Every structure is written in C-alpha cells, then in structure tokens.
Amino acid sequence: QVDLEESGGGAVQAGGSLRLSCTTSGVTFSDDCMAWLRQAPGKERHEVARIRTGGAVYSSSVQGRFRISHDDGSNILYLQMNNLKPEDTAVYYCAAKKGRCGSTYTYRGQGTQVTVSS
Length: 118
What we know:
seven-stranded mixed sheet
C-alpha cells in the first residue's frame, strides 16, 4: 500500500520561500517515480517536478526556482520553492508511480495549499 501525505504549505509574499514535505510509505525512491503536481484555481493539475534514479526534471515555469529532493532515511520527498510568484498559488500534490516515470501517476496525496501574495 502506498501512502503519501503532504505538509508545509502556507501563505507567503512574493519573493519568499517555502519547503513542502511529503511523508511516504510503500515507495522506493531508487525504483519509483516521485513527483510534485499542482492545481491552480480553475486550471488543470500539472506536473512541476519529478525525480527518479538519474535525476530530476522541472517544468519551465519553475526551473531554477524549485528543487525536488528526497531523504532516503526518513522516506520524505521535498520541494524547495524559492523566489515564489503569485502564479505559483495552487494546491500542491505529492504523487508516485511504481517503476519508470510516465505521463500519469498512480498515487497522489490530499494536497497542501500554497498561496503567494504580491
């Protein structure tokens, strides 16, 4: 069974930083694909970062500002978000897929709200 639980969301001013955490169980960081997705009000959910053995991939909208990482010892996935912009406001979800990365994710957490004010 895979369980994912996000934390660390909140309200911040533009230019600020937040670090999201995803406590995981049932996944293996060395084998499985992990990602952060986000959904802004009135928009579709989409991927902002993914990581698996071999490296991380970022969407162009967050490249250079966000960093995805994981702590193998504690089974936690992180998303460090710097230089936040109002357009980063969204519900952020931790997601996982067994094995190689693909276009969809089998598992997703409940999400955590990030609000960036100008």
